Amino acid sequence: FARQSAGLKQSTLSSESSSTYQAPLSEITKRRNLAIISHPDSGKTTMTEKLLLYGGALQQAGAVRHKAEQRATQSDFLAMEQERGISISSTVLNFDYQDYTIRLLDTPGHQDFSEDTYRALAATDQALMLMDAAKGLEPQTRKLFEVCQLRSIPLFTFVNKMDRPALSPYDIMDQIEQEFGLEPHPILWPIGDGDRFKGVLDRTTNTVHLYQKAEKRGAKAEATEVALDDERLADWIGDSELYEKLMEDAELLNEMIPPLDMERVMIGKQSPLFFGSAMTNFGVQLFLDHFCRMGTEPLGRETSKDILITPDYGEFTGFVFKTQANLDPKHRDRLAYVRIVSGKYEKGMKVNHSRSKRQYNLAQAQALFGSDRTSVDEAFPGDVIGINNPGSFAIGDTLYSGNSPIAFPGIPSFSPEKFAYIRAPNPSDYKSFKKGIDQLLAEGAVQALRQRNDENGPLLLAAVGQLQFEVVQARLLSEYKVDSKMEPLGYSLARWVDGGWEAVEKADKDGKLFGIMIVQDQWKRPVLLFRNDWKAASLAEEEKYLQLKPWSA
Ligand code: G4P
C-alpha cells in the first residue's frame, strides 16, 4: 500500500464518485492507530496495560489484573493464549485520550505468528517498536522491523525497563542506526538507569520529568516537572553525577542530532525515540502525549489499479485483514475484521464485495475491545470493525459502497517453514474435522497444500512456526471436539513457481526436481518444497524459467 503524509489529500476518485457521504474531517483528524511490535518479554503487555490506564479504558473494562493471577491483559483472550501467556491473535483495543481516539492493534510477539502480525500491520498506519533497555535489539525485533520496512511503516521507538540496569542510550541508538539504517531521534532522554533511574528529559520542551514510583501497581506515576535550566534541578535530582551527565548529554544531543523531520518519519527513515519504564509508568504518559501530536491520522490506501483512496473519499471502502471463528464459544460466531479506509460505516448499509461481485448488507458491525464487543451504529476511516462472516469474506477482500468498483491489493502470505500432514484418526469425526479445518484455513491460521489434482488426498499443512500447528490442533479439539494427528515432514522451505505448471513439468522431465516435493496451494498454483535453503537457491539460479518466489500474493 502506498503511503502518503497526512494532510496531503488527493483522492483521485472523489471528484468522479457519486459521493454520498464524506467522513467529517474532525472524525479523521482525531484518530490515531498504533500497532506495538517487540521481542517477547520486552514489556508489550505491560505497555498496553499502561496505555489503557492513561486512556481510562481499563477502569471501564475492569481492573488491571496481576499476571500471577491471570497472565493476560484485555487483549489476550483465547484460552490457549492465557494458558501459555502468549498473544496469538491480534485484536483491537479502542480508547479515547484527551481529544484523540486511539486504536491499539495488538500483535503477537512470538515469531511463529509473524504472519498475523504482518496482517495487523496492514491495518495500521504506524507502529511502536518496544525494546528491552538491557538487551537492545533482539531477534524478533529484527524480524518485525523488516516487516515494517516492507510496508514503509512509520515507527516510534520506546526503550523500556530503564528501571533495570540498561545499556548506554548511545549504544542503543547506535544499534538502531547501524543495523536498521533507521535514524533514531531522541524525544525523551533517560536520567540514569536501574535504581538510579530518576526520570526523563523531554527534549522538545527542555523540561525534566522526575518521577516517584507509584505505590500501587495500577496507579499512575507522580511526576515533578522542572525546567532544564532551573537552578534547583541539581537538588531535585539529588545525585550530582547524574545531574552533570544530564547537562552534558543535553548539550551533546543538541549538537549531534539532526532536527526531527516528520516527512522522514512518515517514510520509515527516522524514528522518534523514547526512554522509560512501562512497569513503573515512567515516561508512558509523555510518550502518549507526543504520539498523539506527532502520529499520523488514518492514511489512505492504494488500490490494485494504483488509485489512491484517501479517508475523505465519499464512499465507504475497507479491507478484511483478519478473520476469526468462535471468539465467543457460546455463540459459535465468525467475524471478519475490516479496516475502514474511507467514508463511513452505517448500520444496515449495503456494500459490494470485490471478489465475488455480490452485495452484502452489513446489518451489525461490532467494535472490539479484546474479548468484549459492542454493537456500533457508525464507524469512520482508521476504525476496525468486526462484521459477521458467513464464510464469504476472506483475508485481503475489499468492501465498498457506491458504483465505482474498488479493490485493494491482497495481503501476501509468509513463506512457510514447517510442513506436516494432518488427519482425524477417528473416521466418524471426519465431518467436524473438515468443518474445523476449513474454518481455520479461511482464517489463515495455516496454509493448506495438496498433491497436484488430488482434492481428496492427504492434507498437508504449512506454517511459519510450529506453534501454529499446535494452535490448529488445540482449536480443533476445543472448538470442534475433534482429535487430530500430525505427521511432520522434513522440508523447511516453500517456493511458489510463478512460471506455472508447464515450467514445473519441464524441470521435472529434465530431472531437476529430485528430492523436491511438488504440491499445489489452495488456488491450485504450483509450490515446491525444499529440504534446505541452498537447494532452493541453486534451483532458482539454474532454472530461471521456474521464477521461484518466496511469497504467494
Ligand atoms: P511481553 O508482553 O512483551 O512478553 O512482556 P510483558 O509485558 O509480559 O513483560 C515481561 C516481564 O517484564 C514481566 O515480568 C513484566 O512485569 C516485566 N516488565 C515490563 N515492563 C517492565 C519495566 O518497565 N521494568 C521492569 N523492571 N520490568 C518490566 P514477569 O516477571 O514475567 O511478570 P510479572 O509477574 O512481573 O507480571
From TrEMBL:
- Tell me which UniProt keywords the record has, alphabetically: Cytoplasm, GTP-binding, Nucleotide-binding, Protein biosynthesis, Signal
Where does this protein reside within or beyond the cell? Answer: Cytoplasm; Plastid, Chloroplast
Q: Name one GO cellular component term.
A: chloroplast
The UniProt entry lists the main location of this chain as cytoplasm
What the entry lists under SUPFAM superfamilies is as follows: EF-G C-terminal domain-like, P-loop containing nucleoside triphosphate hydrolases, Translation proteins
Start and end residues of each Tr-type G domain: 29-299
What superkingdom heads the lineage? Eukaryota
Against Pfam families, the record matches this protein to: EF-G_D2, GTP_EFTU, RF3_C
Against InterPro entries, the record matches this protein to: EF-G-like_DII, EFG_III/V, G_TR_CS, P-loop_NTPase, PrfC, RF3_C, RF3_dom_3_sf, Small_GTP-bd
Annotated GO molecular function terms are:
GTP binding; GTPase activity; translation release factor activity, codon nonspecific
Keyword GTP-binding applies: yes
Q: Which family does it belong to?
A: Belongs to the TRAFAC class translation factor GTPase superfamily. Classic translation factor GTPase family. PrfC subfamily.
Q: What is this protein called?
A: Peptide chain release factor 3
Query: What species is this protein from?
Result: Fistulifera solaris (Oleaginous diatom)
